[in-house]
Specification:
By secondary structure, the chain is of the alpha+beta class. Helices cover 16% and strands 33% of the residues. The termini are close together. The chain has one domain. 25% of the residues are buried. A six-stranded mixed sheet has the order 2-3-6-7-5-4.
Amino acid sequence: MEYFELSQSRLVENAIEIIGLDKERYPYRMSKEDFQALDKLKVAYFSGREFEEICEILVYPTFLVSDRLKRLLELHEKQCRFKGLQLFPTAQESGQYPLYWIPCFPELDCLHPDTVILDNGFADRLVLDSRKLADRPVFRIPGLVEYKVVVSLPVAEGILRRRCYGVGLRRLEVV
């Protein structure tokens, strides 16, 4: 089976910026404990300026997926848990009120020994061990500095069929 890293596309230049969200409570690398401490739904704000891009994935201050992408991920992985973040614009003329979800993906320790991790903890080359994957459709790789979400080929195809804006998919090596 083929697997892909799920991320915000590098082509997104002006993703919406969430205002006033506590970075201590909503860290970049959200742990299960951090996730459990969150409210089921939180309200936050964004500027609503016309040049901001409302993407399906946001990565700052924490990994967030749109409501549409959440529904797709839930179809494939029943173990995913989500907590909501309803955004309101500070500019009244915006008229857009995106709903994002903070995911808690199941973790899967599946790195092959050929994986290259730099001294600073970032992955230079990700190689997945096919014996450890067990055909999981969606999971997160633990133990890295970066927040790495991996999806299977059927999930990636579903994302592409729906033309999700601002989603990056990078094919990973599986040995």
